[in-house]
Amino acid sequence: AFENRYWPRKYVADHEGYIRYDKIGEGGYDETERVIQNLLEERAASLGIQTVSAEPLVAIKEFEHSAFRTPELYLGYQFAFGRSQLGSEEGFRPESIVEYGEPENVDLHKFYMTGEWKNRSDSMELVSDTGRIQLYYNAKEVNIVTEGTAEIKIQIDGKPIPADIAGSDIMPGGVLSVSDPDLYNIINADSASTHLMEIDVSGSGFQIFTFTFG
Question: Do 88 and 130 sit in the same domain of this protein?
Answer without folding.
Answer: yes
